[in-house]
Design a protein that fits this description.
- The chain is of the alpha/beta class and 264 residues long.
- Helix content is 31%, strand content 19%.
- It has one domain (3-262): Alpha-Beta Barrel (TIM Barrel), CATH 3.20.20.
- The chain is built from seven helices and eleven strands.
- The longest helix is centred in the middle third of the chain and has 17 residues, at 130-146.
- The protein binds zinc ion (2 copies) and fe (iii) ion (FE) (2 copies).
- One zinc ion is lined by residues 80, 106, 154, 224.
């Protein structure tokens, strides 16, 4: 069974295509299920790459339209929520605003003003050692896992997006995050989005996935599609990778409950 739970809509301002086009592409590629996960709104204007709170009803309408037009394709409702320390209450409020199937926890911000995957902020990498940036990123990921707000975590080593990476064994950076994911019982994404970025690698690294498998952390494969043709992007590669590591199951979510299904 294969499905794609990480897909965006034009409401975030940097994705294209109506959800119906994503659904059509999913059917074309033989996916059995999909889910939308737009960047979560904030109570007030926060940055320029998420849906506005006033657009939230339109988000629900978009997903409803795709469901109506593809009645045989299960279409789940999710959100990709930024983990921001101190803003946990807002995520809980959002969870009450619709019948969500899952919340994806994502770390983009490693400080209140640095979204580490933002190409417009590449100069910031010169301000501090790569080791420090990585430590901050994985500390935030650990807190995201521990927060209990999310069903699975997005692109677990997004910090490598532009190719910045400490030398040597990276496991010391991963360890606390993996332990926290295991302890919290959340799942994690294996995302093919990294293949479309400068790093040209799946998120997370194979070593991260091996360490996750050792801890019995559930996984799911997603594309982080920001355009219809990116739905199910390079899923064959992600399936081979997780199978090679030992995974035989992936996770589905319905009404924020996890269900394990055999890997397609
Ligand atoms: Zn995005
Ligand atoms: Fe993201
Ligand atoms: Fe995304
Ligand atoms: Zn994303």
């Amino acid at each position: 069974m294969l499905f794609d739970y990480h897909m965006h809509t034009p409401l975030c301002g940097h994705a294209t295509g109506h959800p119906r086009e994503y659904a059509a592409e999913a059917v074309r590629k033989g996916l059995q299920e999909i889910g939308f996960s737009e960047h979560n709104p904030m109570p007030a204007k926060f940055d320029d790459w998420r849906m506005d709170l006033s657009d939230f009803p339109e988000y629900l309408r978009f997903v409803g339209e795709a469901r109506a037009e593809f009645p045989k394709l299960p279409i789940r409702l999710g959100l990709e929520c930024d983990y921001l320390p101190g803003k946990e209450g807002w995520i809980r409020e959002l969870a009450q605003m619709a019948d969500f199937d899952y919340f994806i926890g994502a770390v983009h911000y490693i400080t209140p003003d640095w979204d580490v995957d933002n190409p417009l902020k590449l100069a910031r990498w010169k301000d501090q050692p790569v080791e420090e940036v990585w430590a901050k990123y994985f500390k935030a990921m650990t807190q995201a896992a521990q927060s209990g707000l999310f069903d699975f975590l997005a692109h677990p080593d997004l910090v490598k997006k532009f190719g910045h990476r400490p030398k040597g064994d990276l496991r010391p950076y991963y360890r606390e995050t993996l332990d926290a994911i295991e302890a919290a019982g959340v799942a994690m994404e294996v995302s093919t989005a990294g293949l479309r970025k400068e790093v040209m690698e799946i998120y997370p690294s194979k070593i991260f996935i091996e360490e996750a498998f050792r801890r019995k952390i559930p996984v799911l494969i997603s594309s982080d599609a920001h355009a219809p043709q990116e739905v199910g992007y390079e899923f064959d590669r992600a399936v081979s990778l997780v199978k090679e590591v030992g995974y035989r199951e992936v996770s589905c979510f319905r009404g924020r409950k996890r269900v394990a299904v055999p890997l397609g």
